[in-house]
Amino acid sequence: DGGITQSPKYLFRKEGQNVTLSCEQNLNHDAMYWYRQDPGQGLRLIYYSQIVNDFQKGDIAEGYSVSREKKESFPLTVTSAQKNPTAFYLCASSPQVDYEQYFGPGTRLTVT
Amino acid sequence: QKEVEQNSGPLSVPEGAIASLNCTYSDRGSQSFFWYRQYSGKSPELIMSIYSNGDKEDGRFTAQLNKASQYVSLLIRDSQPSDSATYLCAVKDNFNKFYFGSGTKLNVKP
Prior knowledge:
heterodimer; A: mainly beta; 11 strands; B: mainly beta; 5-stranded antiparallel beta sheet; 55% strand
């Protein structure tokens, strides 16, 4: 089955700890994205990558870091510098030459 | 800052009626437009994409685009209770970045 997987589905951490969220796709898509969604709000772009070993900051990159060492993987690290990390995190991918963007199931992160 | 605006709702329609969802965007250079459906607690799923002015139909869904007015809409015919969800409008710019509205919550009453 082709698709985007995110793990884990739920994640709990103590304040001050870094945490890495996994995102893998087997759709052979070039572009990958990380979004954050807070209750009752739309999606806000954290980082995106259009090719391997290259990525750009989105609108709310502070306190987050990413890597893109393989085409199929785009992990997101939420660092202790992120002031309000509790949120629903969504990974997405898009073919470079086509237009639609497809989402993984999401990871719900709770930091206490 | 590129913006995408949607009425947050909730929009309530009776079963079998037409639901009309609207979206405006600020970036006049945007070329690609999308509607996503998001059930509570789930990730967004793509419903429609539209790239040129006019209407695009897919089953019970029709997307309408007017680039001159910077306006895109989604019509859902014969609305069903299973259509009850939040509908997100998304706009893609020339740098492959997507901008999302905050969504319109639709309630379809049996």
